[in-house]
Amino acid sequence: MTHPGSRQPGPGPRAAGFRLPASLSPYLLLPCALGLSATSDLTAPGNPVRFALLGLLAGLVYLAALRGPITPTRLWMVAIGARLLLLPAEPGDDFWRYVWEGRVQAAGFNPYVLAPAAPELAGLRDADWAKINHPGFVAAYPPGAQLIFRALQAFPTLVWKLAFTRLDLAIVALLAHWRRSDLRVAAIYGWNPLAIYAFAGAVHFDVLMVLALVGAARLLERDLAQPSRRALGGSALLLGVGIALKLVPLVLLPVWFLACGWRRAGWLLLAAVPPLVTALLLGWPGVDPLAGLRTFGRVARTNDCVWWLFELVSGLRLETNALPQLALAVGCGLAAWVFRRDWLRATLWVLGALLLLSPALHPWYLAWILPFAALRGPAAHGWLIFSVSAFAYFLLWLQPLPWAQPVWLRLLILLPPLVWWAQQRRAGAAVAGG
Description:
The protein is built from 19 helices and no strands. It starts with 28 loop residues before the first helix and ends with a helix. 58% of the residues lie in helices and 0% in strands. The protein has one domain (25-92, 155-285, 287-432). It has 434 residues and is mainly α. Helix 3 crosses helix 8 and helix 6 (157-178) runs antiparallel to helix 7 (184-190).
């Protein structure tokens, strides 16, 4: 049984010059997923180019598929099938750090105190230890994530992948239930090649944070429709779970505050419970769980959207990330205030400001915003385009570290969404002008 309206072509983003039969195009994501899995070892010669091209092709198929009819069967066959095909993919290099930091905890050490290169941990090293990135830095992931790593550290990679894939599909199910009359919302996330690869293939733990964030947003909407202490308290707790896993949802606290009003804002204090409890379990206050994150945050620069252009135009060189971090905080706060009368729009703009003003933008970070772009509708489909062009980022693996990102590669990533947004603004101005 299909939902009303689910068979009608919707306002998906246009893939110019790219046409496929409406009923066939979603299933072409499956061979694309198989190709991405086969070329996912980015250290193998030629694979970065193959992987990036396959990702861009998968993105075009994805954009075309969103313009066709979407039924529950088609939604789930493609969403589940593509993820299963990516299970054999080579994990991203962050994964080996997850396993290591879990093993360190299981052995009775604290990853916030001892970096992987510490001599005290030499006895824990195995063949995968050499794959760990930044071995001289202590852990940067928040305490909630560390507890997940400890729980899963003894299991093989496939178990991690199956667990994260199940959580990823739970996001699809939540979106499908949330907007039952329009399955396109669930398909925008569920069929997105970048999200599929990031969690089923590369095993990025961000999926836990995204699920908590979408759940918090759903409960907030329910509370705003019919005020409920249970819904608002649950929303605050889930927001806190997201913060305990990754600090990203911190920037959304002003959105939640402005949405529920100062009279009921006390419920938001529940968001502090999961971060505080998990921090206590990892040794705080005796151990600083944010020390590693601050170290990374001061100097990390990868694929940034704004600051390379700032340096290019101004002729200045940013030695630290102090200015980007200040601009990020101001930008997120300003977006929350400007769009305070529409919490969903504010959420999208705050996360968008976070991504665009961040000094580091890895492609899988775009999965943070995709559910909200899906809920927001056609006005936010530029983020879908961005998630497609972001596959060009993987061409950076053609060069040794430290990466020097050429201007042409930045433009290849940024121009497609910018052109789409410019076209939307022109179209809006033409309609307004009659």
